């Protein structure tokens, strides 16, 4: 099957040739090196979160993709050699083109979480466990010592923030709860919280469209290279996929910029990482647009538009691949659970819980603490515990 000599869209990264061997091995090794960092974050209880699980899939896939790219790089450049590896080339093109999608999906969840967190009022925030985790991170030993000397209240060693103190609570099974002091009372915004959640649902739908159009446009790009009509359709699908992914990234940042100026409770530190990761992903996205605009007479030719020259290869690895890797590195180098206040799984609610749902949740938590043998139990709590068990309250002086 010969290649159409008129208009073949250039391949992202060009045709794998012998000059790709060493860079591909290095890229594969760099992604493999991220796996220990990911599992380190996963193993530690204080940084464990499911928000970045899509990034794990991206790391594994990139490690495999560049290993395969290195494996086929010594093959001869000819119609026969190209036809033998056409299926593999389609897979490589599809995964390379779609690289920013999984990272963008996790970024969207991080944006949703910090925006939803910012809508909780001062009182409502005390009922959200992930917003109270920050108090449990140690700042310094001196903070603990100073707090213990200056405060008449009972300070815990793991709640060392100078804005955090311990007080007796009727809802705390151990008799204590962590409460955040704030300089002023902030109102609750349930309708805005609902809007952010539905907006994220809309973004997930757009990501699905990005995935489908990118998958179809790239996996058929080589197979249908001799059909000008279908080839043009595939090019259009690639542009649609790339354009939508960039639009979603820009929309997320516009929303964050708006929130920074209108929502005083917004986590400003987390927004800096949002901007940094987005900038890195946009670099890769813009590079894809420049490659998609080029055409060649043969995928393995050394025309400037074929992306097989040394300068084009350098740009591919430095501008097309390195920013993606750096974006993943940023996500793993920080404690996402702490910086973005995601808790274990971020904000995954479809809506706020009703009073009845809240009461059932609190009772389940009390039962769980009871099984662990923790603390002070009140008679009303005993009367509401399920499974017909009777427990005597613990009396302490």
Automatic annotation (TrEMBL):
It comes from the Eukaryota. This is Uncharacterized protein. Keywords: Membrane, Transmembrane, Transmembrane helix. It comes from Macrolepiota fuliginosa MF-IS2. The chain crosses the membrane at residues 21-40, 201-224, 236-258, 270-290, 310-332.
């Amino acid at each position: 099957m010969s290649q159409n000599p008129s208009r073949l869209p250039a391949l992202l990264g060009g045709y794998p040739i012998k000059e790709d061997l060493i860079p591909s091995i290095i890229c594969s090794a760099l992604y493999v090196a991220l796996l220990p960092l990911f599992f380190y974050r996963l193993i530690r209880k204080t940084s464990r979160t499911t928000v970045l699980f899509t990034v794990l899939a991206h790391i594994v896939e990139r490690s495999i993709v560049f290993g395969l790219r290195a494996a086929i790089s010594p093959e001869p450049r000819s119609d026969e050699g190209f036809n033998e590896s056409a299926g593999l080339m389609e897979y490589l093109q599809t995964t390379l083109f779609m690289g920013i999608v999984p990272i963008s999906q996790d970024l969207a969840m991080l944006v949703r979480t910090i925006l939803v967190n910012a809508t909780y009022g001062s009182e409502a925030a005390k009922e959200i466990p992930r917003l109270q985790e920050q108090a449990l991170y140690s700042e310094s030993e001196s903070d603990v010592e100073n707090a213990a000397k200056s405060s008449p209240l009972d300070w815990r060693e793991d709640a060392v923030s100078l804005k955090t103190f311990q007080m007796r609570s009727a809802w705390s099974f151990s008799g204590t709860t962590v409460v955040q002091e704030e300089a002023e009372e902030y109102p609750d915004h349930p309708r805005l919280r609902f809007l952010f959640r539905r907006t994220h649902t809309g973004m997930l739908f757009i990501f699905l469209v990005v995935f489908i159009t990118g998958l179809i446009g790239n996996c058929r790009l080589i197979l249908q290279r001799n059909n000008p009509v279908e080839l043009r359709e595939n090019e259009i699908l690639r542009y649609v996929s790339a354009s939508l992914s960039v639009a979603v990234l820009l929309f997320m940042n516009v929303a964050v910029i708006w929130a920074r100026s209108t929502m005083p409770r917004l986590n400003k530190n987390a927004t800096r990482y949002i901007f940094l990761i987005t900038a890195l992903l946009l670099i890769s996205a813009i590079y894809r647009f420049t490659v998609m605009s080029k055409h060649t007479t043969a995928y393995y030719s050394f025309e400037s538009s074929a992306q097989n020259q040394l300068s084009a290869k350098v740009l591919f690895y430095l501008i097309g691949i390195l920013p993606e890797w750096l974006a993943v590195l940023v996500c793993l180098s920080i404690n996402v659970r702490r910086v973005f206040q995601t808790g274990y799984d971020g904000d995954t609610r479809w809506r706020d819980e009703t009073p009845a749902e809240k009461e059932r949740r609190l009772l389940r938590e009390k039962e769980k603490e009871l099984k662990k043998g923790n603390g002070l139990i009140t008679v009303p709590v005993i009367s509401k515990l399920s499974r017909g068990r009777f427990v005597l309250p613990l009396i302490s002086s």
